[in-house]
Amino acid sequence: MLLHSTFMLRALAVDDERPSLEELLYLLQADPRIGSVEGASDATEALRRINRALETGPAGPDAVDVVFLDIHMPGLDGLEMARLLTGFARPPLVVFVTAHEGFAVQAFDLKAVDYVLKPVRRERLAEAVRRAAELREATPLIPVHEPDPDHISVELGGVMRFVPVEDITHVEAHGDYARLHTAHGSHLVRIPLSTLEERWRTRGFVRIHRRHLVALRHVDELRLDAGTVSVLVASVELQVSRRHARELRDLLMRRTTGR
């Protein structure tokens, strides 16, 4: 029995070989169950694209329902990328599209929807799309993209990594970007400070200045000097604006007294 679905998948195809990527995009665009499809030439570009989907939410224009993913790629390979995706609270579905038969066990261990061998046959790819569409429609909450609450993705040396939120000492605004500071260095992410303030409010982060957000657990000292207020965070002194000084002092007092 042929199942008909009105749901249109939003797809991302990832392959470092341009001819293979173009062929895959062509075949996916021809499938009536694919509402939109974009291409990426490596895992880092793909993770950056998926991270953008996290920011806009499942109903946003950048949402991704399913990733069609090659395995052998320079830098981060397809299996490693799929493993990173499992760290998301609700990751996109994954279909592997590869010339290598020997990785099927690892692929299905990572909850892949399907494993399609190259050269890709239209009928075989259509079967993979059918499986993804049925899963997406039957369990709509699975591929909804929400940030992992305990980590934030950053790009480092061409590789996407996940930094534990608890390791972040403070955050500095850089226009539409924010610089995350940890004991081991800093990372620039394309997320406004106001977004991180709202996202991490319940995780002990508080705004102390229009340019700075600090983690209360990493505040070592509160300094008062001639009417100015500053805090020492991981050996870095940061100024506290007047409008935020009273709230910060109250929060720090509650933390130390346990009230």
Automatic annotation (TrEMBL):
Domain HTH LytTR-type intervals: 152-254
A molecular function (GO) term: DNA binding
Residues recorded as bearing 4-aspartylphosphate in the entry: 70
CDD domains: REC_LytTR_AlgR-like
Domain Response regulatory, residue spans: 10-133
InterPro entries with a match to the protein in the record: CheY-like_superfamily, LytR-like, LytTR_DNA-bd_dom, Sig_transdc_resp-reg_receiver
Keywords: DNA-binding, Phosphoprotein
Stated name of the protein: LytTR family DNA-binding domain-containing protein
